[in-house]
Amino acid sequence: MTKLQKIIVGLSGGVDSAVAAQQLIEQGYQVEGLFMKNWEDDDTSTACTSEADHQDARQVADTLGIPLHHANFAANYREEVFAHCLQEFRAGRTPNPDILCNQRIKFRAFLHHAERLGADAVATGHYARIGHGPNGYTLERATDRRKDQTYFLYTLGQAQLAKALFPLADLLKTEVRKLADQAGFANHDKPDSTGICFIGPRDFRSFLGRYIDFSPGPMVTLTGEVIGEHVGLPFYTIGQRRGLDLGGRSGHAAAPWYVVDKDLTHNRLIVTQGHDHPALLSQWLTAIDLQWVDGAGPTTSLRCSARLRHGQNDAPALLEPMEAGRWCITFDNAQRAVAPGQSVVIYNGEQCLGGGIIDTRNRLDEETTRAFSQS
Fold it and tell me: Is residue 371 in a domain?
């Protein structure tokens, strides 16, 4: 890319996107900012948070001397991200809105809007690297391994990577905060964002309960013993410990309880004790909706590593194609708390190859064979 190209940076009000813009200016690009509003409801606290973020983005833009555009993608977010997540919660699965948001808002709606504003490319404050290989653009890990966000970006393909820049690829988070302080950004020590992408930190149960129907039901052990009551299956995920409110139970050890599974047919939440109980461990999983960075993906079995959640170490595994676009991932060592609906992301060394949605998984406490259902 030449240094005369126009880049629009998604300024969120956070420190990462602020330094991303500053780095591009130093590299000689023509830079403008864009603040995205992606959520609207009647919660005044959220409106206040959004306005505060907008003011932080404005301060950064003013400090850098660049224009700041504003775009409202709330309708896109509700239709393309939030509605899908609600559907997944109703089905008993655990979706990842951050991944959908990157795919459908930041690198689709935002990208198209930026192009209409005359941008040659967009940039964000993600910690990731865009490289080049024999099959085109590659998505690779950032220098800061703790902050690396390739897990959230695996849905990006060649068209998106050709129009994207990640200026923080070589920076550590500590360096980013130092640069922000030196630049005079008021948000240099602002905490990282938490909660649902663009919706922010909320009481999860009360928020989700506004949009989906749920019913309390029995909380049972693996043997079917009723030991408590859950507040609604959508509010729990595999491996969860907090929020079970079980405490000590007569006839059971004084040890923490964990969610093992959900029985949607009988509205039962299945729990057990022991952080690494076999019921919480899976040797394999099947994945659907696979998306590959190079647009094609492997055609045969592949030794790889896989990540089940952001911040987790990769696990060595064998990736094998199945019928109807499904894939099986068999781990060298059993993995804990594999949650259907979440994403499994595939790596080959430093390179993120792609990923998909976890559909099924085995439990080591059950009699399981490698004869998977092809339906």
Answer: no
Q: Residues within the annotated binding site for ATP?
A: 10-17, 36, 125
* Contact in structure between 228 and 244 (CB atoms under 8 Å): yes
Domain residues for the domain of 24 are 6-183
Q: What is the dihedral of CA 214, 275, 246, 270, to 10 degrees?
A: 40
Looking at every residue in the chain, the average pLDDT score rounds to 91
Q: Which residues are catalytic?
A: 101, 197
**Both 160 and 179 in a single domain?**
yes
C-alpha distances (whole Å) from 372 to each of 286, 336, 361 are 9, 20, 10
Residues 269 and 283 in one domain: no
When divided into structural domains, the chain yields a total of 3
- Domain shared by 56 and 115, yes or no: yes
Mean pLDDT confidence for 279-293: 97
Model's pTM, two decimal places? 0.91
DSSP 234: G
pLDDT confidence of 30, banded at 50, 70, 90?
very high
- Give the per-residue pLDDT at 302: 96
Given phi > 0 = left and psi -120 to 50 = alpha, else beta, which region is 374?
A: alpha
Question: Cα–Cα distance between 20 and 4 in angstroms, integer?
Answer: 17
What confidence tier does 248 reach under pLDDT thresholds 50, 70, 90?
confident
Mean pLDDT score, 262-268: 96
Rounded to whole angstroms, the Cα distance separating 207 from 226 reads 28
